[in-house]
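Key idea: predict the complex, not the pieces.
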Amino acid sequence: MADEKNAPTKADDAAASVPSDLEGHVDAQGRYPLLSVQHLSKEFPVDSGVFASKMSKRVSAVDDISFDIFPGETFGLVGESGCGKSTTGRCIMRLTNPTGGKVFFNGENVADMKKKDLKSMRHDMQFIFQDPYASLNPRMTIGEIISEPLIIHGEMTDKKERLDFVRELLDEVGLNPEHINRYPHEFSGGQRQRVGIARAFALRPKLIICDEPVSALDVSIQAQVLNLLSGLQEQYGTAYLFIAHDLSVVQHISNRVAVMYLGNLMELSDWKTLYAQPYHPYTQSLLSAVPVPDPDVQRSRKRIILAGDPPSPIDPPTGCRFHTRCPIAKEICSKERPELKEVAPGHFCACHFAAPFPIKESSINL
Amino acid sequence: MDLKNQPVPEGSHLLEVDDLKMYFHTQDGVVKAVDGVSYNLDRGETLGVVGESGSGKSVTAMTIMGLIDMPPGKIEGGDVRYRGLSLFEMTEKQMQDIRGNDIAMVFQDPMTSLNPVYTIGRQLGEGLRLHRGYSKEQATKRAIELLDMVGIPNPEQRVKDYPHQFSGGMRQRVMIAMALACDPDILIADEPTTALDVTIQAQIIELMQEMQEKNGNAIIMITHDLGVVADVADKIMVMYAGRPVEFGTADEIFYNPVHPYTWGLVRSIPEALVDEKKPLTPIKGNPPSLVNVPKGCSFSPRCPYATDRCRNERPDTYTTETGHYSRCHYSMDPEFVAKNAPTNSRRRAEENGAADAVAGKGGEA
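Result:
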């Protein structure tokens, strides 16, 4: 508790003093990243409990991924279910302990932080969860839910001041401040997600990890929540790590987007390039599989339909993890894992045959 | 005595839903889950039903299949006619002959719709043994064929497996195989791809379209995803608070929508491949409770164009010559529609074309 107040300055000092790990990680404006994920890995044992042994198989959920997030930007992380995108988010927040790699937040390595440091780190890094029905305690009023982070971090010890601040927050996220004493069950899904957002913003964090924040909501409500998130970002300069499976939502909200497949990072670029000129065959098939709400476009466009299901992460394919479903895979793909190479300024792709639209010819016309 | 082998009587359609009303009588009051749904469907056609959760999409389908418990449900009016025969006048025995045989359904959640204690083969063959009197061996043989047809590798082995040994996409393929086992006339698919990833969704949609081409069955596709209906539907019904608010061909709904709710849905989806990001235009507020549907137009509390007339007077159904109908007082006012409807790719192309060459192909669309 004592070093609570010093935490921000300590972090700033650290950022200034240990740039060695962050060397070369600057953006166009010469800023150091707010968050730098370096070679992050996470394995889960398949067996757990009494019978688990060191020999038992392991699920490699996240395997050696690296990316940076700069202050105030939205970084989108997309992929199909089971690709490790949520695990990545949870490792960054240390909701689960990574098994390899480093995560620098504010210049400090989150991966080896002690419990006490974690608490002060989480003052600046907050989480918005997917399920608005399960992530709010049903026995607490929304006022109590939103003031909890303030109490935990010892801010606004005066109750009246705190409640006034919570009312302000409620107003900001589009809820009626008079509803401060209501319980979560009295709200709809979209409104509950607004409560979750208010809770995440209560400490004015620098980074918020949003894990599928809109996928449980209807389209009309989804648009409301997306606009709210953009508005709050504009106002407070918060950076987002936006994890989602919906490519059009990620495109809409993100500055830069990374695509994951089976625990690997396949492609990373600014949103426009990634959607207009993807290099990786997986990104291309993913984009071509998204149905466009426009019958003319839908009838005329060529689509790549991937065969089969994603393989199991317990025994992932050798070499490139995508080679079992890739329409352009050659022999080398099953032997060598492709590096994440810079194929154009700021555009990274992990494919031996990376090229804009490499699989145009083999596309099937529906 | 298969109904599906008899000709459709002159003047009727394969399926006619006529002002269907299904209310639930609960402690909190009467929930008007389906309140006046009408449409016709012919063989080979696909109807897309779109709407948010609670708009009555699934209840309509369940009512057609006779799967709603009554009570608490009660049919308060309207009729459903299959090949000219009213489904509501049939006995339970007759309905059992129709269910799975003439009209089959694919449910949303492939994880819970299969029985975990029976093999895939037994569940696939159940309909055939029931409706066609197949023996156990015949049913298993046909089950293997069906699994092969929906693209499950190694069907001879997989037919003996249990549902937990299949992935989500494969279970949904099994559900489709099961629904298609007796060559139904109508396939009702209730959010068949919502629980699946996009690459698997693309596989499943392609499979359903292939099967339709081969068998000529009609499909009712229930979904909340406008992208999916743009992909498959010939006709689209947009539902809101238990009522269809707009109905038309896919082209009419996407390129010439006239109801403000349809506009709101279109504006809520992030546009693909744009140069500049614009904020989304969401529909304000929340869908109404079905116990207490607003007086007048049920969309009026959320409609940005609502007038006093909308708040007090329930709009009639306004139908054009092509059968495109809308329940909005102002949908027949071309000026109102032109001023407020969202732009779309066709309109943009037209405008660009008009700008490029004045004497052009303005009349094409």
